[in-house]
Amino acid sequence: MEFVRGIFLKNRWYQDAAIEAMLRTTDNSVVVLPTGAGKTRTMRGFVEQCSGEVLVLSHIKEILEQNFSSLVSLGDVGLYSAGLGVKSINRITIAGIQSVYKKPEVFKGVSVVLIDECHMVSEEGMYASFLKAIGARYIGLTATPFRLKQGYIYKEGIFDSVCFEAPIERLQKEGYLCDIRLEGSLDEFDTQDLRTVGGDFNMSDASLKFDRDAVTEKIIESLTRYKERYKHWLVFCIDIKHAENVAASLNKMGVLSEAVHSQSSRDKAILDFKEGKIQALTNVNILTVGFDYPEIDLIIVLPPTKPPTLHIQAIGRGLRVAPDKDHCLVKDFAGNTGRLGTIDSPQLDSLGKVKKGKGGVNPFMKTCPDCEALVHPSVRVCPCGHKFKFRHNLKLQSHKAPKKKWYKVSSIYYTLHRKVGKPDSVKVSYMCGTRVFNEWVLVEHLGYAGFKARYWVSKRWIGDTPIPDRAEELIRKSNALRKPSMIEVEEGGKYPKILQSKN
User: Fold this and answer.
1) Domain hosting residue 314, numbered range
2) Per-residue pLDDT tens over the stretch 307-317
């Protein structure tokens, strides 16, 4: 496949699959595509095949311009935005929600509405009132299909379902997205005494506590080792003053930087960054949604946050691929990864709300004391070689060691397993002579259980279609799963445990 500056010139398999799902669905659905996966290209493919009038909505000027630039070559495209000084309507109209929400009568002929970054849509507000007034079917696109207090927008909210979701891990493995390396800090910010306002940390408290010369100097000093290795830095800061202070400190270190915020000249700073005149941009929640620059290879996170959307959107700036870029390093000083999980496995419950650890502790990631890499709490040896110490609760054990044995598999059965209050899963039953061994694939679960399930499916998937993320669909398409000839089973516990398989 031809590759030019981070763009694959043909539709990728998941883009075609998403377009097909959008054309097929009759619900008010959500399409979940990771940052950098090409939502704009997917929208273009859908619009090309869609009959009738289409309205493409967003709430951010930069996204409005991006969508218009992508679709204008189709020919019958209008732009409706008071902020841009244009009010043109055509078969395909790109519009800002702020400009149209009080004028639903103008768009009564629209057959389908596309909503970019649809995680911003709530049950009340401009989007909800406008969509209700025009009565058209709508499809949302986002990398983060959840809101802080609401949870998943397709379980609570104005959307009915997810019609397509592309798995980050597979897209990274196939080279469509860049690998993310996570590092914490041994000097991680202590957020215990920060107040909560509106579901997030109070930024005034955070500023008073963390925007201090001593703290900033220590951070900048720790970043010195990245100066030569990483060429395009994106730094997220607490507030405007913090962004200015961090930019000034980086400049003193020799990393040419500019601060981007609501009171700065944004366009010039971004242009200087993209042209290589400066190495770093500091910002305050400006360069998240709508900011695309594939070359970003170092993301520095300083503001602590509780909403997983902000956490994932920030890290997502590093997912795009680019020449000579084999990964993007995320340096998390705020402990957000420990609280909220990784970009491919956010710590959310079945409703899409942030999980809480026992006693207020969130043991979702831990920091290696040698290399500062963030790893899963179960990891015993860091890739750098550091051996973690574990507390062992010594219990009286049976002298009999668990029995491990290989069994020949004669047949496999897949059945739907349902449990009240839990997501559906797939029960896999292996017929081994007169014995039956079972394991459960938790494809609809989140967190580490869901990650393991997706990995299990990806190892066995031999189909050309996207890997199913719903239990019922996985069962329907089970003929696309590779059938192992042997399984290794450990017996001796309460239930036999399947350890591994052979083809």
Assistant:
1) 179-375
2) 888 899 999 99
